[in-house]
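Recall that a protein's primary structure is simply its ordered list of amino acids. Everything else, from secondary elements to tertiary packing, is in principle encoded there. The following example makes that idea concrete.
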Amino acid sequence: MKISEIIAREDYLDPKQVGIFKENIRRYIDNSTRDQNEILAGRAIIQISPVQLKYFLRKKEREENTRLILQYLLMFLDKDPDDVTPFHKQITPEKQLHGFVRFQVNLLLERDVRKAILHEYSQLRILKTGNFWYYEGRITDTHKELSGTLADCSGQGPVAIIQLCRILERLSLFWFDLCREDVCRIRTSDLYIYKLALILQKSLTVSHNQ
């Protein structure tokens, strides 16, 4: 059974369950930030090569972007979009989230990410010399699809946020599929983003239609 089907069978919209889920996400954000700070403290006292430093900073930037997405989704779930205070005072919260989502989508263009995806296909024994072009094309097509949807999402308010949530939902499904729908192998952050995007879409759709 697919992960999306498992979640669809859950009562994930129950207010009590949503409350527990949000606390789990906040704990995850706090722990990941603490872990990152501990690593930084450790790095300060040892010598690392320029290549290691580049890898570490790239990984840190990606993890920070993921945390920011989770934080914004939580804020939009807790408050009306007009009441959300953006981290950057000169940019609307919707536009900031748009930038964070674009960062995630553009990771599909990064050489190391594409290499990791193709390696995963190879490990699954479905990537061969004759079909390499197909699986590389799937990555490119997914990026093109999501980038096109993102380009059409330039507004503000609930509608814009719902559109961004749909992009995050689609991107999460891509990662779930890559892990062959194995709950033990998917990243916790992808699962959190997926469920939070579903909950927020439902919440904003209901409030927008009232």
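The chain has eight helices and no strands. The first helix runs from residue 3 to 9.
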